[in-house]
Write a structure and sequence with these properties.
Elements (H helix, E strand, L loop, with lengths): L1 H9 L3 H12 L4 H8 L5 H41 L17 H15 L3 E2 L5 E2 L1 H4 L25 E2 L5 H9 L4 E10 L10 E12 L5 H16 L4 E8 L2 E10 L16 E10 L1 H6 L5 E9 H9 L12 H4 L4
Parallel strand pairs: 1-4
Antiparallel strand pairs: 2-3, 4-5, 5-9, 6-7, 7-8, 8-9
Helix pairs in contact: 1-4, 2-4, 5-10
The structure holds phenylalanine.
Length: 330
């Protein structure tokens, strides 16, 4: 019996322990066979022996249960250790997210103008006709509205087609001098290689006392800005038309891919159009009740800048949420 207890104490696994239980109390077990022998004894002897055997059995079971619990705890501990997941393990392949390439470009543009003390303004994406068109010298049925077809709501509201309405909203609220930019989303009914129904613009507006700003100021700041964005490029101003500026210009940079020699990206012209600008039209100042002021404004498409900077040929790649594409801009 003592050796049985010792065997229990040195058992290593629940399987070993189970073998011991069978060895003692199984059908042919040591204790079981001793109990079987009781029937051959006379009454007196039987009583004494039965008591003794029951004590031994009780001792065995107590030791056995005790050991069983210890082994169960040990085995559970071992299992948990084997199956545990180390949450602190470094897995370089997953990595963290990053800003979207369009937002990275937008931030760089904003950084430039903030460094020159331009304030950042914003306005609603759902605009009324007055702020998006009328006040910008685009009366109803003006043919220039065709270039900016948009999405209309039943109540006459519309998704803004450019950030220019924020010029109007800022001038309505503030008095000159004004020096602002407005980065934000705009919407047009467009969809092809270089146009998506939603894209981003950065608008700029400077208004001063009459005579204090000229086209020369506008030209200087935009040339400096474009070199900040694209490096040492040539900059060219081409006369153009916008209802809200007069005179108006479109601005080109020498092609950053062929350096002006002519390639597919610049349609073999050597130039890339990158923004629109001009001196603020008198009718715009009239619409907001400004007198004796002069100013300039400009507007640019952020996606266009991002496409050129990262040499992306299909704008839609920015909006398809394909991680294989987006991860390249970390
Ligand atoms: N709002 C014009 C556009 O979306 C850009 C622009 C802004 C042009 C300001 C001139 C001055 O095309």
């Amino acid at each position: 019996m003592d050796s049985l207890i010792n065997e229990i104490k040195s058992a290593q696994s629940s399987a070993e322990l189970e073998e011991l239980r069978i060895k003692a109390l199984g059908k042919k077990g040591i204790l079981t066979s001793q109990f079987a022998l009781l029937k051959n004894l006379d009454e007196e002897e039987k009583k004494g022996k039965a008591k003794e055997l029951n004590q031994l059995k009780g001792e065995f079971e107590r030791e056995w249960m005790l050991k069983k619990e210890i082994i169960a705890t040990e085995e559970l501990h071992k299992k948990l250790l084997e199956e545990k997941v180390d949450m602190t393990l470094f897995t370089p392949s997953k990595g963290v997210g990053s800003a979207h390439p369009v937002m990275i470009t937008m931030e760089r543009i904003v950084d430039y103008f903030v460094s020159l003390n331009f304030a950042i303004k914003s306005g609603p994406l759902i605009e009324d006709d007055f702020h998006n068109f009328e006040a910008l010298n685009l009366p109803k049925y003006h043919p220039a509205r065709d270039m900016q077809d948009t999405f209309y709501f039943k109540d006459g509201m519309l998704l803004r087609t450019h950030t220019s309405p924020v010029q109007i909203r800022t001038m309505e609220k503030e008095t000159p001098p004004i020096r602002m930019i407005c980065p934000g989303a705009v919407f047009r009914r467009d969809y092809d290689l270089t146009h998506t129904p939603m894209f981003h613009q950065v608008e700029g507006l400077v208004v001063e006392e009459e005579g204090k700003v000229s086209f020369a100021n506008l030209k200087y700041i935009l040339e400096d800005f474009l070199r900040f964005m694209f490096g040492e490029v040539q900059v060219r101003f081409r006369t153009s038309f916008f209802p809200f500026t007069e005179p108006s210009a479109e601005v080109d940079i020498s092609c950053i891919f062929c350096h002006g020699k002519g390639c597919r990206v610049c349609s073999h012209t050597g130039w890339l159009e990158v923004l629109g600008c001009g001196l603020v039209d008198e009718n715009v100042f009239k619409a907001v009740g400004y007198k004796n002021v002069s100013g300039y404004a400009f507007g640019l498409g952020v996606e266009r800048f991002a496409m050129l900077i990262h040499a992306v040929s299909d704008l839609r790649a920015f909006f398809e949420s394909d991680l294989r594409v987006l991860e390249q801009f970390r």
